[in-house]
Each structure stands twice: as structure tokens, then as C-alpha cells.
Design goal:
It is a single chain. The chain is an alpha/beta fold. The chain has nine helices and eleven strands. The strands form two sheets. Strands 8-7-6-9-10-11 form a six-stranded parallel beta sheet, with helices on both faces. A five-stranded antiparallel beta sheet has the order 3-2-1-5-4. The chain starts with a helix and ends with a helix.
Length: 251
């Protein structure tokens, strides 16, 4: 079971480890029994089968959506009272989520892109930085992965998942219009675009002309960041990361 858990972590697949931590009287499985539950409801191992295990699986999928652990307590006495069994005992099961490290994909390696990468690494994100200018990437930004070439090449080289946040801090509108359709085709959890409200309006018009739908445009957070009257690249990075973290953690 531990080897299966390690393999899921290695392939960056979210998973919950369900462990029976306490039992009383007659129960299907004793303390220490474990089961893995994946986001699609697949399981490895067992905590007892039957209705109780079915409920544990449903709760584990919720835990993955929240990213927070949960303790469950079941009486196995009387199904007429809603209990998931008639074994005669009680069981407590701890659900522990193992989430892949969140990735920040930074599009643009200028002063602000570097500041965002530095701060993101400090707060625990895995950082990927792309810029179409090879000479800028060669002057290695502080990132776990540095990419150049086309945005298509970059997205082929590094898979964006539903745990990825994308921060677009490029040098001009033309580049934004060129690359955003590719970014919007990914399952990224968050896509934010730097610039003034006027710049976003111009970018938006260009994307509409290119055939991007209103539903996709609604995914873009623009202008990116919370309002703190930021001026320096470092201050702007604080504003951006505050919004990204808020999106990740939720209300």
C-alpha cells in the first residue's frame, strides 16, 4: 500500500490514504487497515468493504476536492438508523489527502516574471518559467523548469494540469493574443493576465476576433493581482501571489 501511495505521489496524482485508526467490538477490519482512494473513485486495498467502504470512498473524493483531512466515525449497529452495517461495533477512519505540489506556470521571464518566480518558490510552489526569447531564458531565472521556443513547445514539454496556475506577464498585447488560446486550451485552475484594464480590453478584442469564446475569456483574471498600489516588480509579485493563493485556498 505504501508503495502504491509513493507511486501516486511520484506521478503527481492526487490520492487519499484512508486508515482505520480505532475500532470497538466486531468490525470488518481492524486498526491499521488501509485503502487508497483516487479522484475518480478508484480504490486500492480495503477498510472493510460493503456500505461503510462505499461511504468512505465518497467522503475521500470530497477530501480530495477540499485538500483537507477528515476523521470519520461509523457505528455498525442498525441500518434502519442509517448505520452502514450490522457487525455490532464502531470504527474510526482517518482520511489523509496527498496532493501534488501546486505548480505556477509563469509566461514571461522579464523583471516581474522573475520576481513572481522567486516569491512563488519561497511560498512552496513548483515554478515553470517560459519566454520566447532564448537569451532571456539563458540568463536563467530562478525556476524549477525554464523553457523557451514556442508556447506550443513549452506546453508539450511541461504538462499543465488542474493543479496548475498560469501567470501571464509578457511584454505586449500582441504576444498575449498569440499565446492565450493555447493556455485556455489547458485545464489550468487559474489563468491571470498582467496589464491595465485598457490593455485587457484590447487583448480581449483581439481574442474575440481570433474566435475565442466568451466562456473561455471568462476564465482569465485580468488585470491580475489584488489592489495594493504596487509599483516595484517585487510588490507586483506580492499582489499576484496573493490572488493566486486566494484562488487555491478558496473562501
Amino acid at each position: 500500500m505504501i508503495a502504491e501511495l509513493a507511486a501516486a505521489i511520484a506521478r503527481e496524482e492526487p490520492v487519499v490514504l484512508a486508515t482505520v485508526v480505532r475500532t470497538e467490538r466486531s468490525v470488518p477490519r481492524r486498526a491499521g487497515s488501509k485503502m487508497l482512494v483516487y479522484a475518480d473513485g478508484r480504490t486500492e486495498g480495503t477498510v472493510g468493504g460493503g456500505e461503510m467502504e462505499h461511504r468512505v470512498t465518497l467522503e475521500a473524493v470530497e477530501v480530495l476536492a477540499e485538500g483537507r483531512p477528515r476523521m470519520l466515525s461509523y457505528s455498525l449497529l442498525d441500518p434502519a438508523d442509517g448505520d452502514p452495517g450490522v457487525c455490532g461495533g464502531r470504527a474510526e477512519i482517518y482520511l489523509e489527502p496527498y496532493m501534488p505540489a501546486s505548480t505556477l506556470f509563469i509566461v514571461g521571464a522579464g523583471h516581474i516574471g522573475r520576481a513572481v518566480s522567486d516569491l512563488a518558490k519561497w511560498v512552496g510552489y513548483r515554478t515553470v518559467v517560459w519566454d520566447d526569447r532564448a537569451e532571456v531564458i539563458d540568463d536563467a531565472p530562478n525556476a524549477d523548469v525554464a523553457l523557451t521556443g514556442t508556447i506550443t513547445d513549452a506546453l508539450d514539454a511541461y504538462r499543465v494540469t488542474g493543479e496548475t496556475a498560469i501567470v501571464v506577464v509578457t511584454r505586449n498585447v500582441e504576444l498575449d493574443v498569440q499565446i492565450l488560446p493555447n493556455l485556455l486550451a489547458t485545464p489550468a485552475r487559474y489563468i491571470g493576465l498582467m496589464g491595465s484594464a485598457r490593455r485587457w480590453e484590447t487583448t480581449r478584442d483581439g481574442l474575440i476576433a481570433a474566435g475565442v469564446s466568451e466562456a473561455n475569456l471568462a476564465r482569465v483574471h485580468a488585470p491580475i493581482g489584488i489592489e495594493i498600489s504596487a509599483e516595484t516588480p517585487e510588490e507586483i509579485a506580492v499582489s499576484i501571489l496573493a490572488e493566486v493563493i486566494g484562488d487555491r485556498r478558496g473562501p
